[in-house]
Amino acid sequence: MVAHREHNMSTTTIALLAVVLAVFGVATFLVGSGRWQARPILSGSMRPGFAVGSVALTEREPLSSLRLDAVIVTHPPGEPHVDLVHRVIQIKSMTSRGAVVQTKGDANSAADPFTVRVNGPWIYQVKTTIPLVGYAALAVHSPAGRRLLLGLAALLLVIAWLRILGQQRRKNTKHRAAVAPTLLESPPHGSN
Question: What is the 3-state secondary structure (H, E, C) of 6-28?
Fold first, then answer.
């Protein structure tokens, strides 16, 4: 019964590790391809739908798909390293090379005090949010966070490998212990 339980734990551990690695691999591919991005929500300007500390999952779509009421990722004028996740309330102009839009945070009483220029044929639109992982996503986007994440993944692989080796060693020890008494009970060759 104990061996069966250990085998189930080993199988469960391997299956869980495989699922985690598969999800990580798919997420890495989607983000690496540039089609999807994760954007942490760091302010309350989009409450109640976008809680502080959540992460917005965005998909790259053609600029021509931009519509009023879409929640998009842009940058305030003169701040290319600041992500702004706000709702489009007015499309002032649109061409195949870009657009100028007015945005507003859902929790804000007024529109943003600037218009946003979207350059290029693509726009990132928010598809969904995941609560409580925004700060972790922000950390992962930093170089130190990526190193930490890779280190944790390697550590999980080593722990899983050591568990499998330990379980195999215990199984071999039990097998030898079960076989040894049988060998002792057998009469020596050539005796009557």
Answer: HHHHHHHHHHHHHHHHHHHHHHH
